[in-house]
Design a protein that fits this description.
Helix content of chain A: under 10%
Number of strands of chain B: 13
Largest sheet of chain B: 7 strands, mixed
Shape of chain B: globular
Shape of chain A: globular
Structural class of chain B: mainly beta
Helix content of chain B: under 10%
Order of helices and strands of chain A: EEEEEEEEEEE
Number of helices of chain A: 0
Radius of gyration of chain A: 13 Å
Largest sheet of chain A: 6 strands, mixed
Strand content of chain A: over 45%
Largest interface: A-B, 26 and 31 residues
Distance between the termini of chain A: 40 Å
Radius of gyration of chain B: 14 Å
Number of helices of chain B: 0
Order of helices and strands of chain B: EEEEEEEEEEEEE
Oligomer: heterodimer
């Protein structure tokens, strides 16, 4: 069974701080997505990484896919209260199934 | 382009009662998913349809849960009878049959806002 483990589970920081969240697996994924979910809403796609070692930037967010395509990280620079939410990583296996990690709940205090 | 529509947004029932959730995917999306998200956890796949056929229902508790997508468009998820542990957000997602990025079918999903179920 493929599993995605996210860490930390919960993070509370002050506005302006930097942070990194991790998504790890023992399995190889053909691609991996990061979603953000706000209370009362469905997850919204932030980015997809496909190539091992790939780095993508989305404003203050930097996403990296591990060389072996088993893990990924999300780094936020100068966090803002608007970054508050649940960050989910999801991986697509060789089949048609997309599985999700348990998520990292981020709270950014003003 | 309209997004994935779900209803109702909220439902409160007592245990042993039944409930149904409806989902209308993005127009033209052949694949439709129902996920269950319990508070504090990530979404767990319940069932995946491709057009009107079931691709994966291995994690659907078939003694109480059922789902259909009769015309290959909208879908209904039913729970009967409900248990306390069914309290969760039920998320519907859709995607085109093929969604290629950088030469790979990436599996990106488009989610609705979810239906929050509370079982008392």
């Amino acid at each position: 069974t493929q599993l995605l483990e996210q860490s930390p589970q919960f993070l509370s920081i002050q506005e302006g701080e930097n942070l990194t969240v991790y998504c790890n697996s023992s399995s190889v994924f053909s691609s991996l997505q990061w979603y953000r979910q706000e209370p009362g809403e469905g997850p919204v796609l932030l980015v997809t990484v496909v190539t091992g070692g790939e780095v993508k930037k989305l404003k203050r967010l930097t996403f990296q896919f591990g060389d072996a395509r088993k893990d990924s990280s999300l780094h936020i620079t100068a966090a803002q209260p608007g970054d508050t939410g649940l960050y989910l990583c999801a991986g697509r296996s060789g089949g048609f199934k997309t599985i999700f990690g348990a998520g990292t709940r981020l709270f950014v205090k003003a | 382009e309209a997004g994935v529509a779900q209803s109702p947004r909220y439902k409160i029932i007592e245990k042993r009662q039944s409930v149904a959730f409806w989902c209308n995917p993005i127009s033209g999306h052949a694949t439709l998913y129902w996920y269950q998200q319990i508070l504090g956890q990530g979404p767990k796949l319940l069932i995946q349809f491709q057009n009107n056929g079931v691709v994966d229902d291995s994690q659907l508790p078939k003694d109480r849960f059922s789902a259909e997508r009769l015309k290959g468009v909208d879908s209904t998820l039913k729970i009967q009878p409900a248990k306390l542990e069914d309290s969760a957000v039920y998320l519907c997602a859709s995607r085109p049959l093929s969604w290629i990025r950088q030469g790979v079918d990436t599996g990106e999903l488009f989610f609705g806002e979810g239906s929050r179920l509370t079982v008392l």
